[in-house]
Amino acid sequence: MPDIRVKICGLRTEADVQAVVAAGAHYAGLVFFPRSPRHLTLDEARIVAFAAPPGLAKVALVVDADDATLDAIVEAVPLDMLQLHGHETPERVAALRERYGLPVMKAIGVADEGDLAGLIEMSLAADQLLIDAKPPREAELPGGNGLSFDWRLVAQRRWLKPWMLAGGLTPENVAEAIQRTNVRQVDVSSGVEASRGVKDPARIAAFVRAATGPAVPRLR
Ligand SMILES: O=C(O)c1ccccc1N[C@@H]1O[C@H](COP(=O)(O)O)[C@@H](O)[C@H]1O
């Protein structure tokens, strides 16, 4: 089994962090997007972030956030990475890397081959790419909808930077997604929830197990 890294997104409580650590995941996603059921205030995010042990990378997810919003997040919350999940351009990605000195992962929504066109340029600007399902017009959120896309579009593909697969992954389908695409990193939110916005420790553990194989968890 290749070395697979797992991001669990949309953590809201210290108990969520404990579940992620016990499962052996590598990244913890904190959502700063008021329309999301996983949105955190700065105070809530601080509590969640300070519960994370060294070795669990804390990723702030934002959507077309302005500098003032990002300044407040970065000032209040200890972070290891920014995840940009809106319409940020390569220039904006580069500017934010420079401004905050944090690695930036840029999300790209994919529904068909044409959506892959901008990936080369984006991979020059970002530290990592996150390839997610493109949200349908009627979707409430730009991500975190539990929808997947045709994995054949990205199967066996390589870009200049590491990439992560997202969109509708679950404990039941993640092993197949890895096998079909040859991706080395996976991200999940809806697929490890008991109800919308509420994480389920058993599904988190099952997801990490299915993605990484039955190895002993890395963190305790
Ligand atoms: O999780 C959210 O609420 C969210 C809100 C706005 C943008 C992105 C969001 N989540 C990200 O979406 C993908 C896929 O999530 P899912 O597993 O299909 O629910 C993932 O990268 C989340 O980080």
UniProtKB/TrEMBL annotation:
Record GO terms (molecular function): phosphoribosylanthranilate isomerase activity
Catalytic reaction list: N-(5-phospho-beta-D-ribosyl)anthranilate = 1-(2-carboxyphenylamino)-1-deoxy-D-ribulose 5-phosphate
SUPFAM superfamilies registered for this protein in UniProt: Ribulose-phoshate binding barrel
The keyword Transport is assigned to this record: no
Record domain N-(5'phosphoribosyl) anthranilate isomerase (PRAI): where: 6-209
Pathway: Amino-acid biosynthesis; L-tryptophan biosynthesis; L-tryptophan from chorismate: step 3/5
Top-rank taxon, per record: Bacteria
Keyword tags: Amino-acid biosynthesis, Aromatic amino acid biosynthesis, Isomerase, Tryptophan biosynthesis
Matches recorded under InterPro entries: Aldolase_TIM (IPR013785), PRAI_dom (IPR001240), RibuloseP-bd_barrel (IPR011060), TrpF_fam (IPR044643)
Coiled-coil regions listed in the entry: none
Documented EC number(s): 5.3.1.24
GO biological process: L-tryptophan biosynthetic process
Record HAMAP family: PRAI
PANTHER family membership: N-(5'-PHOSPHORIBOSYL)ANTHRANILATE ISOMERASE (PTHR42894)
UniProt record similarity statement: Belongs to the TrpF family.
Record's protein name: N-(5'-phosphoribosyl)anthranilate isomerase
Protein's gene: trpF
